[in-house]
Amino acid sequence: MGSLFRSEEMTLCQLFLQSEAAYACVSELGELGLVQFRDLNPDVNAFQRKFVNEVRRCDEMERKLRYLEKEIKKDGIPMLDTGESPEAPQPREMIDLEATFEKLENELREVNQNAEALKRNFLELTELKHILRKTQVFFDESLYFAMVFSGVSKKRYERFPEFNPNYSRQLSFVAGVILRERLPAFERMLWRACRGNVFLRQAMIESPLEDPSNGDKVYKSVFIIFFQGDQLKTRVKKICEGFRATLYPCPEAPTDRREMAMGVMTRIEDLNTVLGQTQDHRHRVLVAAAKNLKNWFVKVRKIKAIYHTLNLFNLDVTQKCLIAECWVPLLDMETIQIALRRGTERSGSSVPPILNRMETFEDPPTYNRTNKFTNAFQALINAYGVASYREMNPAPYTIITFPFLFAVMFGDLGHGAIMALFGLWMVLKEKPLAAKKTDNEIWNIFFGGRYIIFLMGVFSMYTGFVYNDIFSKSLNVFGSSWSINYNTSTVMTNKALQLNPGSNDYSGTPYPIGVDPVWQVSDNKIIFLNAYKMKISIIFGVIHMLFGVFVGLFNHRYFKNKMAIYCEFIPQVIFLVFLFFYMTLLMFIKWTKYSADNENKNLSAGCAPSILITFINMVLFKPPQKGLCNPYMFGGQAGLQKFLVVIALLCVPWMLLAKPLMIMRSRKQAAHQPIAPYSNENGDADGGLNQHNNVQADGTQQAGGAAAGGGGGGHGHENEEMSEIFIHQGIHTIEYVLGSVSHTASYLRLWALSLAHAQLAEVLWNMVLKNGLQQGGWIGGIALWIIFAVWAVLTVGILVLMEGLSAFLHTLRLHWVEFQSKFYAGLGYAFQPFSFEMILESSSNSSED
């Protein structure tokens, strides 16, 4: 049936490659992405493998490229991305790449070191410039503080200022710059350590300064400290060092300060010129590197992946041949051999590679081919569990059933249109949106499921059209089949009027498609829709479960498990059909046989029996209560129902005991038979390649038998104790019998969520938008504009996003539990081929994180 319905046939192969051609051949296989290599050196340490030095060289090249990438991003330079993936370079090209990266790194580091040294000098000169500018006021005040330290009173100083010209010479001082946030603590420490014998003056530097080490903007302040004595000088300098304040020489004479300031300004101008030239050179280096950085990353990662793969191989005795084991799809054997020949030609080797198929009892990996459309649906299935090898794949059926069951719960023409348009936009803008790689996880989930969202929206539009529901309103497309035969005053004064389907109120011809729009204005709308949606939920649920059981039949037939067909499939179908499918048939009989305009009283709407009561009486063997109406829908119904229940109950011991008893009987027969050589009488579904699926003498499978519900890929019973087999079968029987009841009831969530969605939409309309439509004039227009915006936001946020997510999760549960449990084991492991595309994608995602 192809890999869409069942996983690809896989085969284990042994590959012999000449040492000179191994690199090129593995490179071709990486581009192809169809080969999963096995590790033939599981006990060898990673540091002791043959190509560990080449892997280390690749790691070093990747480190240098990451350094270049960080510097390019720091300068905001765009990196050229052509979207093309260059081929893996030859091993001899690694030396050229290493030399190129080494040269670029050294040049960039040298430029950065020079730029940092220049910026540090520039910072020092800038700080010195601010010190020279702002300390003039401080020196004017120093004379007064010198007199204070010498014991001269303030009053005397003010009276005889000419008496004190030499007092300032008794003071020493230090000047410097400190971070502004450290200044309060710095001042307190000076006061406490020097016991108030110092005088600190400070002034803020208004413009921020650049830190040369990291490029951050910092705010600093200029300070000057006056004191007396060498002891205080030593103490002050230690405190400055502790607070990482930078001290600068500052002349005491004003003329010396002016001369120094002029020299500083000249040096700053020269440094600005040199810094500009350095930045231009750095920018040119980074722009040149940015053009090739993406391709360099791809080449290095491909080389690294190739050597990692070569480390999985074994060397033969002559050290001239590499031996590998790999899983490959059977249909792609020729493609792989062509790729191997192409790699051999590229390497210039004359020895062709050898690809031999091997026989194994090991379970092969599961490989389902997908495209961009089916990939999202396959991901939903794999999230539950990867299918066992060659087990029926639920993904192709999920493509239809998943959006349909979602739409039954989300049926609204308006909300479905919003969802469909959003999905269609993502589908049409697929390439540009995929090129904009982002680490926003929510967006990536939406974009990955764009086809699912589009189909869910389209199906919701269909079910919304059937429900005749658009934003909680109806569409009168074909004209209502009901007519009002009352006058206007009667209608306006009597709110409890009802339309009689048996009279002239009903035309006799139903609405062509879906629900008649007249139900939108009726008071008993919810009662009618309750019964309608409840019944279709049960009908869809029973059909969905029956379909799952019949899918299990394909598994049993493929794995040649006749015992599972006779002991599991047949009683399961009988049990489900005789009870629950019969209940759905009663619904159709009730819909077609009973009507309001039927002249026969027993077939009128009032005499239609309740399906639920009928089913309960049927299971309990309880006769219905006889009244004026006939409790049965057709003749012989009572006897038929007793027969169906008895046969369904007999299926329980059939499922419970038949398989263990047959296994016990086959073991006894095998114990009395002489030992015979092993022969594969039943053949193999894969043409003799996969003996793990062979049917044993007791009718069970060796390594891929039927699990619960008959799915392939379960476990065999050849080495299992009989007590465990009885317990195992008892668990599955109870699970199926009770599950048939609970799963059928579980499908009522289709009805419940649909009803909740419709009622929530109606509440939102009546409480929000309806208020805006009731006002007139220009004030009403403005109010309507505002109210519509609120209604639109609530509609998208609550009814589309939140309700959509709720319906999505419930649909997922119906598929994982109610549908897949009937046939799907999901005990396999995924095929993980050596693929450059997958490696590069995972590497780019990890680098973005």
Low-confidence stretches: 159-169, 678-715
Number of strands: 11
Shape estimate: flat
The first-to-last residue Cα distance is: 41 Å
The rounded Rg comes to 42 Å
Query: What's the total helix number?
Result: 25
Structural class call reads alpha+beta
* Average pLDDT number: 85
Could you characterize what this model shows?
It is a single chain. The chain has helices at residues 19-32, 52-74, 93-134, 136-150, 154-159, 183-193, 230-242, 254-290, 293-310, 333-347, 374-384, 395-409, 413-428, 430-435, 441-448, 450-467, 488-493, 525-558, 562-593, 611-619, 637-672, 722-746, 749-773, 777-819, 836-848, and strands at residues 10-18, 36-37, 172-179, 199-204, 209-210, 217-218, 220-227, 246-248, 314-315, 321-329, 354-358. The longest helix is centred in the C-terminal third of the chain and has 43 residues, at 777-819. β5 (209-210) and β6 (217-218) form a beta hairpin. By secondary structure, it is an alpha+beta fold. Helix content is 58%, strand content 7%. Among the domains are: 114-275, Alpha-Beta Plaits; 374-476 and 503-673 and 694-822, no CATH class.
Which helices and strands appear, and what pairs or packs with what?
Blueprint: E1 10-18, H1 19-32, E2 36-37, H2 52-74, H3 93-134, H4 136-150, H5 154-159, E3 172-179, H6 183-193, E4 199-204, E5 209-210, E6 217-218, E7 220-227, H7 230-242, E8 246-248, H8 254-290, H9 293-310, E9 314-315, E10 321-329, H10 333-347, E11 354-358, H11 374-384, H12 395-409, H13 413-428, H14 430-435, H15 441-448, H16 450-467, H17 488-493, H18 525-558, H19 562-593, H20 611-619, H21 637-672, H22 722-746, H23 749-773, H24 777-819, H25 836-848
Antiparallel strand pairs: 1-10, 1-11, 2-10, 3-7, 3-8, 4-7, 5-6, 9-10
Helix pairs in contact: 1-9, 1-10, 2-3, 2-8, 2-9, 3-8, 6-7, 9-25, 11-12, 12-16, 12-23, 12-24, 13-16, 13-24, 18-19, 18-22, 18-23, 19-21, 19-22, 21-22, 23-24
